[in-house]
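During the no-cost extension, the postdoctoral fellow (Dr. R.K.) reprocessed legacy sequence entries with the updated structure-token encoder. One reprocessed record is reproduced below for audit purposes.
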Amino acid sequence: MTVYVFRMVCFRYSKHTNRTLSVILNYIVRYVEDNDYGPSYREIAEHFELSSTATIAEHIESLKQKGYLRGDISGARALEPQTETLPPDFLNQTSIPLLGAIAAGTPIEAVQTSETIDIPRDMAGKKVFALKVRGDSMIDDGILNGDYVIIETCNTPKDGDIVVALLDRDNVTLKRFYREKDHVRLQPANKKYKPIRVKKVVIQGRVKGVIRKFT
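Re-encoded structure tokens follow.
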């Protein structure tokens, strides 16, 4: 398991631009990388669930004025990042869904979000998402309260994998997975907590890495 530690100087929150502009720029950069051409204003508006393209046009103009998008080309799909003006860390990151929170302690009800989080490109994948950790039951494995775990979708884990375990319809927990003779043991990494033993459990993924942010 890999732990990445970031200072809170991610481009999205930098002093050079506000959150809305940087989220839109992030979307444009990733779109161009995936499609080799830029998104339309309508596609950007739909992605961010905005009804007006006029608002998007204002943000695009601001990004051009700041030098983050080229201002010398025109056309329906002519949005092009000015890569030489973007911080290197921004180009080495990608965004994945932040699907909610998960308990590293006693099971809690899943909390869903519609946010994203930036991660290093070498942690990305087609079926990768992030969850924010709540609790301290995995601290001996280096997973702390407030960390973000990067999850690779998997329903057939190996013994010893750290997994996202769905215990019933709404309750999830983060534990090490072990198959016993007649049950599954979900093992914490903190002596304060006892193992969870269940006959049936749905595994939604296994931990691929951990993101820790600090100021």
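The CA atoms of residues 137 and 193 lie 6 Å apart. The first strand starts at residue 2 and ends at 7. The remaining legacy entries will be reprocessed before the final report is submitted.
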